[in-house]
Amino acid sequence: MVKLPLKLIYPEEIVTEPIVSKLAKEIDVLINIRQAGVTDSEGWLVCELDGSSENVDMALKWLENHGVEIAILGSEV
């Protein structure tokens, strides 16, 4: 199992979309939300993705394909 700390940034075009819910339904990963913020023009989320290394890799690609900017954080979130 892999636990990967991330910051996700949502642009205005997708800020109202249920991205995290869709990701969890489509790929077998746990998403532990640690901090979040949203405005009309942008959203951000600090979280941990937890799952097999294959599923975490698939989740990162899924997020990128859906327009989410990803920053991998250090080991502490």
Present the secondary structure layout.
Blueprint: E1 2-11, H1 19-26, E2 30-38, E3 42-51, H2 53-65, E4 69-72
Antiparallel strand pairs: 1-3, 1-4, 2-3
CATH class wording: Alpha Beta
Tell me the span between the first and last alpha carbons: 18 Å
Look at the structure and give the mean pLDDT: 93
Overall morphology: globular
What is the CA-based Rg, rounded?
12 Å
For CATH, the homologous superfamily is named as: ACT domain
Number of individual domains? 1
Output the number of helix runs. Answer: 2
Q: Tell me the CATH architecture.
A: 2-Layer Sandwich
User: How would a crystallographer describe the biggest sheet?
Assistant: 4 strands, antiparallel
User: Strand portion, in percent?
Assistant: 35-45%
Strand arrangement within the widest β-sheet reads 2-3-1-4
Strands, total number: 4
User: Which range best describes the helical content: under 10%, 10-25%, 25-40%, 40-55%, 55-70% or over 70%?
Assistant: 25-40%
CATH fold name, please?
Answer: Alpha-Beta Plaits
**Class by SSE composition:** alpha+beta
- N-to-C order of helices and strands: EHEEHE
Low-confidence stretches: none
